[in-house]
């Protein structure tokens, strides 16, 4: 078991963080009115803090100097009203955005899920599941937080800082300049920080994806890990990855600390300098004490808006990275819906035909030989064709081509004369039923798992129960009646509460429940004991009599279900005939049927 997943290479998406974040506009569009209202409310609330120093100046230079007690009370009341209004406005802002932003996150998550169902299987072969999980969870939360805080407060703080500096310069331009000057180095430092923090945020978010993959693999593979006593090495692999993530988080913390330090130290020095200059001016009588107090209060009111810029920039960078990661998955092209040709008429009676079929996996190294080459095979209508070949000869790949789980790289496959690429994908998949070697079940009831094969229209229909009983009968799944709630029993995550043979029988029942015209079975009985296998075969024989079937077989007993057998060797069909004919004519077939498969190398070249 690999200890670490192969991470998806970060796609180097060109473009500034702003351009990246602008891609979120379609999701924000429906809530723009509320968001803008909330932002305006926050700007008003924040600018109110700048009114405090003006009231203070009025109080000091007016009622306090004149010892006017009523004026002092009036000023105090004014300050109290301003404070309450500010708090209420910030609360109102939160109320305005909380619900719509949760809606934005939910919409993005739904789109990602829908998209992942529609991308080709090859995409899922390439992407570790943890990377997809982290994009649909952590990254989307980061994006929601960005809309709720950084985006709003970058605007709010920006306006507050500009208004504040305007006020400072208006109160006393020399003192104002002392405070404004440090802005130049601070902007340069922020700019440098952005680039470095962006790279660290990307690394960290990718590492979270890798860690998720390891956790997922460890949980799903817990039996193997325990069985082989690999919990220590698995824990070591986890610790290593988690240590790397910790290192990246520390790098981020160091970068942020440098920025926050800069954003704190420069204004503090400037404020100290302004205080000295201001006091000298008051002593010289060039400045009133009220103006100096108002000036310093305004400067202090700007402290938090300036200091918080560090956090806001960091959160914005993380949101840009999260957005980039989200769209890397979303930008993967979906499968097209297929052609528009009508589903072939069963009367045409041509069965399943492979003509010059070639296939190479999209991620195969350049120059490597194709998995399947020049496959010509005709499964007549109503016929069952077994596909036999050494391990790795391409049998599973061949079966996956019929429902278009992978796209042919050459040649064509027709069903009753109709090219599979000309048909609508959904209709093609309704026409062809499949059972894979690895029987995958979902965390649902037995009945729901089996009815999945009956298609969306008939799955929950009134006639579904007799069909379910029939399908379970064909698969010899009598054990279902003995489960605590019969067919309504939940099978747990991936059906792991059932045995391998039980899962395989349910997968077979799922494949036959819809009475498909074309059936593709990838070694469907491999996990059954000989008695159950014989019983399933007897029942399956009847189903196979009514359908055109391609059945991957490793054992002679499964081969005997078929009318004819195709021998796949080195990615090609090297012989077709009845079981007896192939036993007579093909040494490789005799070898495979005698159980010596292991001697054949990859692509079956060991016996040719
Ligand atoms: N997703 C994939 N990406 C790249 N190569 C693959 C992929 N799946 C299978 N292969 C390669 O394609 C070849 C054929 O694999 P396939 O699973 O079709 O063989 P098989 O005959 O069904 O083997 P088995 O009898 O062991 O199930 C193998 O060499 C395998 O390594």
From TrEMBL:
- Keyword set includes Cell inner membrane: no
Record organism: Streptomyces uncialis
- Domain annotation ABC transmembrane type-1: ranges: 36-318
Q: Which domain of life is it from?
A: Bacteria
GO cellular component: a single term: plasma membrane
Where does the ABC transporter domain lie? 352-595
- Under which name does UniProt file this protein? ABC transporter
Q: Which SMART domains match?
A: AAA
Q: Which GO terms describe its molecular function?
A: ABC-type oligopeptide transporter activity; ATP binding; ATP hydrolysis activity
**Primary location class:** membrane
Among Gene3D superfamilies, the record links this protein to: ABC transporter type 1, transmembrane domain, P-loop containing nucleotide triphosphate hydrolases
* Taxonomic placement: Bacteria, Bacillati, Actinomycetota, Actinomycetes, Kitasatosporales
């Amino acid at each position: 078991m690999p200890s670490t997943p192969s991470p998806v290479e970060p796609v180097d998406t060109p473009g500034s963080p702003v351009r990246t974040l602008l891609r979120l506009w379609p999701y924000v569009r429906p809530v723009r009115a509320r968001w803008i209202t909330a932002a305006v409310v926050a700007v008003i609330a924040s600018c109110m803090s700048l009114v405090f120093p003006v009231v203070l100046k009025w109080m000091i230079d007016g009622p306090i100097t004149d010892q006017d007690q009523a004026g002092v009370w009036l000023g105090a009341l004014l300050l109290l009203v301003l404070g309450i209004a500010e708090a209420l406005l910030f609360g109102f802002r939160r109320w305005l955005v909380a619900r719509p932003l949760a809606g934005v996150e939910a919409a993005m998550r739904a789109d990602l899920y829908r998209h992942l169902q529609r991308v080709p299987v090859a995409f899922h072969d390439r992407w570790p599941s943890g990377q997809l999980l982290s994009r649909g969870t952590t990254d989307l939360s980061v994006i929601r937080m960005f809309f709720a805080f950084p985006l709003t407060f970058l605007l709010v703080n920006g306006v507050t800082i500009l208004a504040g500096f305007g006020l400072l310069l208006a109160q006393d331009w020399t003192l104002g300049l002392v405070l404004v000057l440090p802005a130049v180095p601070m902007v340069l430092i922020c700019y440098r920080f952005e680039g470095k923090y962006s790279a660290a945020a990307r690394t960290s978010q990718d590492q979270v994806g890798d860690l998720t993959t390891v956790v997922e693999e460890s949980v799903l593979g817990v039996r193997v890990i325990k069985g082989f006593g690999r919990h220590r090495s698995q824990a070591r692999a986890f610790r290593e990855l988690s240590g790397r993530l910790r290192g990246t988080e520390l790098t981020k913390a160091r970068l942020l600390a440098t920025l926050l330090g800069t954003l704190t130290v420069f204004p503090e020095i400037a404020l100290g300098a302004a205080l000295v200059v201001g006091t000298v001016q008051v002593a010289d009588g060039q400045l009133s004490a009220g103006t100096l107090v108002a000036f310093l209060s305004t400067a202090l009111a700007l402290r938090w808006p300036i200091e918080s810029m560090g956090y806001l920039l960091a959160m914005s960078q993380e949101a840009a990275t999260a957005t980039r990661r989200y769209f890397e998955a979303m930008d993967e092209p979906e499968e097209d819906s297929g052609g528009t040709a009508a589903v072939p008429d069963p009367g045409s009676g041509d069965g399943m035909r492979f003509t010059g079929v070639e296939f190479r996996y999209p991620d195969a190294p350049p120059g490597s030989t194709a998995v399947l080459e020049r496959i010509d095979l005709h499964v007549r209508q109503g016929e069952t064709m077994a596909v036999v070949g050494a391990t790795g000869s391409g049998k599973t790949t061949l079966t996956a081509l019929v429902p278009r789980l992978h796209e042919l790289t050459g040649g064509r496959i027709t069903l009753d004369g109709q090219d599979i690429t000309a048909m609508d994908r959904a209709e093609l998949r309704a026409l062809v039923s499949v059972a894979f070697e690895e029987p995958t079940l979902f965390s649902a009831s037995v009945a729901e798992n089996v009815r999945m094969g009956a298609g969306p229209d008939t799955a929950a229909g009134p006639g579904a129960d007799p069909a379910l009983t029939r399908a379970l009968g064909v698969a010899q799944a009598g054990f279902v009646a003995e489960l605590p709630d019969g067919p309504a029993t939940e099978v747990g995550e991936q059906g792991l509460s059932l045995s391998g043979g039980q899962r395989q029988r349910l997968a077979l029942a799922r494949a036959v429940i819809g009475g498909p015209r074309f059936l593709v079975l990838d070694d469907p009985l491999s996990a059954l004991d000989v008695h159950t296998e014989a019983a399933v075969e007897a029942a399956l024989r009847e189903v196979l009599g009514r359908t055109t079937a391609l059945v991957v077989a490793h054992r002679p007993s499964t081969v005997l279900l078929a009318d004819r057998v195709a021998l796949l060797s080195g990615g090609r069909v090297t012989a077709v005939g009845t079981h007896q004919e192939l036993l007579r004519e093909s040494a490789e077939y005799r070898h495979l049927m005698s159980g010596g498969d292991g001697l054949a190398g990859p692509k079956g070249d060991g016996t040719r």
